[in-house]
Amino acid sequence: MHLIQVDSVQRWMEDLKLMTDCECMCILQSKPISLEKDEQNELILASQYSTCDSLQLLLKRAWIISTELTRIAQKLEKNRWQRVHSMTVRVNCHVHSMVNEYNTFTRNSSEEMHQLEKLLIDKCSEFTAFTERCLQTEDEEILKSMKSCVNETLTTIAQYFGQLIELVLTQEAQKLLRQIELSGSLYVTESAVSGLFSLAQEGAHLCRIIAKEGGVVALFKICRQDCFRCLYPQTLRTLASICCVEEGMHQLEKVDGILCLADILTDTSHSEATHAEAAAVIAQITSPHLTFTQHLSSFLENMEEIVTALVKLCQEASSGEVFLLASAALANITFFDTMACEILLQLNAMKILLAACSDKHIVDTPYSRDQVVTILANMSVLDQCASEIIQGNGVQLLVEMLFEKSSSGNPAEAAACERVQQKSAVTLARLSRDPEVADAAVKLSCIPRLIKLCRSPTERNNSDSVLVACLAALRRLAAMSPDGLEDSDFQQLVKPRLVDSFLLCTNMEESFV
């Protein structure tokens, strides 16, 4: 018991240190500093150089305030008034610091901004004084009645704070877009695009703000000017980030962005880096995980040109990263429209992709193999696909993919390995309707591997989706070549209903309450 007791004076001293440090910062930042002319010029240059860093600092400060407000609400629920008051003081200090920091690197704040800052600061001061009064009250009934007022004030502060941050981020996006619009300077435009990219990395909400303020329009304007060719890769990378949200996609459609991307991909005078980043934008806007791609009507009009350019990029890729971006775009397009698979067959894409897989410098990660096997799985629904697979030694590759294992233990890589195993099993199941493919798979000892994946959860990383795919492939191969299975495997993995075999192979832990 002695060990868990905390000296209250010591605890108070620790809390006081945090509060006074924060208050000292507020006071120091509020003091005016007189500067000579030369020193002022140096300060302006320094502030321009560190605007991006300052914005990052602001976002970190905003995250701290948001976290503290959530914690105050939690402590309030438990009636821990001492903690509520000390945290309120801390929030008050952080808000003052945030406002001062922002005004330090932003010289021309709007009137609306100043009004919101004043409302937030006044409400925080009022909140601090109110919680102090609660601290001095011992009557439980009075505290209960004051609690609802505290909750209302906390809600108001959260609203003001949210509005202020939204306005700050909107104004920062507007400044950067204004620089792109008004400046013909390569340096200024590059700096503004870099700033937009940094903002977009902060999450979907910021991507929506940038899109609403015309970010997609401004970036495609750069991609249509030859004088900014050296900025195309950076600009396209920023576009790929912004187009993860619906607002970005709508803007892309409005400015004929698909046509612009098709022109870039088919223009052989562009660098490989530019082509790769254009492929990344295509991969983003055709992602099967997005629910708002149906309106991309112009994509179908340019699909053949885009697919042709992407296949060429896969064939000529000088690095694994370039191949990954091009193949990811192709994989997504095969989900987007079935006509893409027919175009890929006409372009001998199967042969190109299988050849790339034999080059360990190009297809060098499970992520790249995931894209290749996705394309093969989606193409395998076509009858002509079987002969292409056999000619390109594709059956052997698919069987090898059943052995895909993560070498690093990284969760993302392990998930990619699961997808490779699952999709290779699906592709084998689909292609094995052709007796020649089924015979080749059996000769390559595909059946023992499928059985092991079914029976050993560790081999499939405990993945149920891999298990289902392997059971389906095993049943198809067993139908074509029944002699390859032992009786026990047939009785447990092939003969019963699929769901029964699935339940048999999964380690189900039942708990009875």
TrEMBL record:
Ranges for domain Protein inscuteable homologue C-terminal: 61-513
Pfam families membership: Insc_C, INSC_LBD
Protein inscuteable homologue LGN-binding domain boundaries: 4-48
InterPro entries listed in its UniProt record: ARM-like, ARM-type_fold, Armadillo, Insc_C, INSC_LBD, INSC_LBD_sf, Inscuteable
One Gene Ontology term from the biological process aspect of the record: asymmetric cell division
GO molecular function: cytoskeletal anchor activity
Xref: SUPFAM superfamilies: ARM repeat
Record-level GO cellular component terms: apical cortex
Name of protein: INSC protein
Originating species: Chloropsis hardwickii
